[in-house]
Amino acid sequence: MHPIQMVDLKRQYLKIKPEIDAAIAAVLDHTAFIAGSEVTDFANDLAAYLQVKHVIPCANGTDALQIALMSLDLQAGDEVIAPSFTYAATVEAIALLGLKPVFAEVNPETFTIDPDAIRKAINPRTKAIIPVHLYGQSAPMQEILDIGAAYGLKIIEDNAQAIGGHYIFADGSKKANGSMGTIGTTSFFPSKNLGCFGDGGGLFTNDDILAKKMRMIANHGQEQKYYHEIIGCNSRLDTIQAAVLQVKLKYLDVYCKARREVADRYDQAFANHPLIQIPTRAAYSYHVFHQYTIRLKEVDRDEVKKRLAARGVPTMIYYPVPCHQQASLVSINGKTCHLPVTEALNPCILSLPMHTELSLEQVNFITNQVLEVVQELGQ
């Protein structure tokens, strides 16, 4: 049995090595390392996949969030609602621009932002909402879109963890994660469901004016070289990364299917266990399992993690400290912010290995070890 990793990028690469190597070699041959044709080709292919009008590639997922917020002409002190139960980049981008993040509670079953909490957080200074499609599961977008329409708020979807997934509306129609709000953003970090071989990110929109503006912002605020019409930044997806992503995009549905199959096996092993709560799959979401995160009950999570590591099973905690309690953010409004659901989740969540190359043998080993360790500690 291969050693178990949280993410096995090498074996994934080896399966498509000839295509990847040829794509990279083509870039090395024409040497257009910045703004090569592969960048445009990938953006067009991804737009077709997501069924959006515009994809704007950029340097990373954090930049994507920042560029999205910059494009909305928000003013210092304007408020943006976001969950605290997310990676810090979601909130960091808000704070970097002098905006005020307002933390909203999450649903205790899905871990995604709670629409009722959004409603309670809205006031005249509120300008936007950033729902996070966490762990590969859609946020409850129908309610969020309705809230945005009712209050005139912009919706920026943080889709760094759920590309390839989709939301199912009440009428049965489906839309890709990242394609429903005013702007969608994503990360192409190597471990993502669609990952490159370095840093990368992207923005999605159906708004022609916003698309033009975001392209300018990502390119020093210029449409014509050396004529800088607005303040921007330098955030580019390089050609080699675009070439890699163009190959891997063809396999995204296959990758998501493989992740769901692993999740199915985990579910079967842990179903109805009194000390393990498996991930909730919301009826409105096609979950693509960027992470498979269990919730432990009446068991020391950190001791479970330690014992599993000793047995050759790596695990991760996404995330050990919620955003509103992070030292870098607590001064904004964290001292007065109390989120009981979020704070109760963090000490008991644990993410198991999840990637496209996990074998049945590896999954069986992982589940057996988890069950044994939980049984030992639960006695």
Helix percent band: 40-55%
Order of helix and strand elements from N to C terminus: HHHEHEHEHEHEEEEEHEEHHEEEHHHEH
Number of helices: 14
**Form type:** globular
Terminal CA distance reads: 30 Å
Radius of gyration: 21 Å
In round numbers, the mean pLDDT is 96
Biggest beta sheet summary: 7 strands, mixed
Query: What order do the strands of the largest sheet run in, or round the barrel if closed?
Result: 1-9-8-5-4-2-3
| Computed structural class | alpha/beta
Question: In summary, what is this structure?
Answer:
By secondary structure, this protein is α/β, with parallel strands linked by helices. It is built from 14 helices and 15 strands. 40% of the residues lie in helices and 15% in strands.
Overall description:
40% of the residues lie in helices and 15% in strands. It is built from 14 helices and 15 strands. With 379 residues, the protein is α/β, with parallel strands linked by helices. It has a 7-stranded mixed sheet with strand order 1-9-8-5-4-2-3, with helices on both faces. Strands 7-6-13 form a 3-stranded antiparallel sheet, with no helix packed on it. The longest helix is centred in the C-terminal third of the chain and has 19 residues, at 252-270. Helix 3 runs parallel beside helix 9, helix 4 (61-71) crosses helix 5 and helix 4 packs across helix 8 (208-218). The relative contact order is 0.17.
Element layout with pairings:
Blueprint: H1 9-15, H2 17-30, H3 37-50, E1 54-58, H4 61-71, E2 79-83, H5 89-96, E3 100-104, H6 115-121, E4 126-129, H7 141-151, E5 154-158, E6 166-168, E7 174-176, E8 183-187, E9 201-205, H8 208-218, E10 222-224, E11 227-228, H9 239-249, H10 252-270, E12 276-277, E13 285-286, E14 292-296, H11 301-310, H12 330-333, H13 340-345, E15 349-352, H14 360-378
Parallel strand pairs: 2-3, 2-4, 4-5, 5-8
Antiparallel strand pairs: 1-9, 6-7, 6-13, 8-9, 10-11, 12-14, 14-15
